[in-house]
Design goal:
- This is Cytochrome P450.
- Keywords: Heme, Iron, Metal-binding, Monooxygenase, Oxidoreductase.
- This protein is α+β, with helices and mostly antiparallel strands and about 400 residues long.
- The strands form four sheets. The chain has a five-stranded mixed sheet with strand order 1-2-8-5-3, with helices on one face.
- It starts with a helix and ends with a strand.
Length: about 400
């Protein structure tokens, strides 16, 4: 089977429930080139080395003109690239500014101090399920939990969720490899509209916070002055848009994939119910075994790079298949088995290097609390269908719905 056929199958919706056999086939050749141009890297050590390689760029402006044509990475005047699509030194400056109100060294207890608030949100969502014998974990829990958290953290009114939900879905869908020319054009038009609408919405909130600051990240970004100066208005908007979308899209999948995996492994579910401390290594294993981000398609090369005997030329599009790397038998023993207390679990679930996930500490805590309380309080949860219906997105992979039956809700 050719690499071209494999990439098409990996992104084919029919294979969304289980792409892992295709990744295993892909790993037989660590670096392959698709007919449309991108180079796919699928093995652990090669992916990790590229994530730390300064010759690998996240800025689409470094693609060759031929590779850049027709992509969804072109510059958008409504919402220029956020820092995850930039390289040093601009990436480093903006990430430091965004980190000031979020974590170390300036706000070291921000996530830790949210523990009580997160627990309260989780308890409230589960309490609302009382007197029901059927639930959809996504709609009833996995989506509203991280959305509520990121709204509070940023200072976005929770009642506005209905507006930004559709914009976030459109922006997240743009991560998928493009299809036909017609599909690509339609995707670009939808993306520009969603970015423009989200930018206008956030601009209004930022102006409100500038006039009347509150204890939230939008206010801090709008008023803070540090060694790196201050974000410009458009930088605040692009950063806020990134955090709003990324702050819930991946965590929805992490929690839902986690509960699905536990229900498929009832012995592990029972272990977690008996020992809540297992949640910490268990979430790390979920990030390896069923990662919410399957691939990083937005990279390019700043020079010719030799990877596993293949020369990837300067300016070529590069797809890092992180979900494949995290199941590489050259790095992980028995990689296709879910081992909740696996040791030396240096997975690729949050990336590596200077673009490692900004929100990883919060996502970890959200997933640990959510899964611990779900298995403690849901009485006899059972899957209604397996596999469940999945989201269309191949990059941010997870069930769109997870129907469950329960015998009741414990106190």
């Amino acid at each position: 089977m050719t690499s071209v056929a494999l990439l098409r199958q990996i992104t084919d919706y029919a294979n969304r429930p289980d792409p892992y056999p295709l990744y295993a086939e892909l790993r037989k050749t660590p670096v392959v080139r698709d007919e449309d141009g991108p180079y796919l890297v699928s093995t652990y050590w090669e992916i990790k080395s590229l994530l730390h390689d300064p010759r690998v760029s996240s800025d689409a402006r470094n693609l060759t003109p031929e590779a850049a044509r027709g992509t969804d990475l072109e510059q958008d005047p409504n919402l220029p690239p956020a820092f995850i699509r930039l390289d040093p030194p601009e990436h480093d400056r903006l990430r430091r500014l965004a980190m000031r109100p979020f974590g170390p060294p300036h706000t070291p207890r921000r996530v830790f101090d949210m523990h009580g608030e997160l627990t309260e949100i989780v308890s409230g969502l589960i309490d609302a399920l009382r007197d029901r014998d059927a639930i959809d974990l996504v709609d009833d829990f996995s989506y509203p939990f991280p959305v509520t958290v990121i709204c509070r953290l940023l200072g976005v009114p929770r009642e506005d969720e209905k507006h930004f939900h559709e914009w976030a879905d459109t922006i997240a869908a743009s991560l998928d490899p493009p299809g036909t020319d017609e599909e690509r054009q339609a995707q670009q038009e939808s993306l520009r509209q969603a970015r423009g609408d989200l930018a206008a919405y956030l601009a209004g909130l930022v102006e409100e916070r500038r006039r009347a600051p509150r204890d939230d990240m939008l206010s801090a970004m709008a008023t803070d002055h540090g060694p790196d100066g201050q974000m410009s208005p458009v930088e605040i908007i692009t950063t806020a848009a990134l955090l709003l979308v990324a702050g819930h899209e991946t965590t929805v999948n992490l929690i839902t994939n986690g509960m699905l995996t536990l229900l498929r492994n009832p012995d592990v579910l029972q272990r977690l119910r008996s020992d809540p401390g297992l949640a910490v290594p268990l979430v790390e294993e979920l990030l390896r075994f069923e990662p919410p981000v399957q691939m990083l398609p937005q990279r390019t090369t700043l020079a010719d790079i030799d990877i596993a005997g293949t020369i990837i030329p300067k300016g070529a599009p590069l797809y890092l298949m992180v979900a494949s790397g995290s199941r590489d038998p050259q790095r992980f023993t028995d990689p296709d088995r879910f081992i909740p207390d696996r040791t030396d679990n240096q997975h690729l679930g949050f990336g590596h290097g200077l673009h490692n996930c900004f929100g990883a500490p919060l996502a970890r805590l959200e997933a640990q609390l959510a899964l611990t309380e779900l298995v403690r309080r849901l009485d006899a949860p059972r899957l209604v269908e397996d596999p469940p219906p999945y989201r269309r997105n191949a990059v941010l992979r997870g069930p769109r719905h997870l129907p469950l039956t329960v015998s009741g809700i414990r106190d």
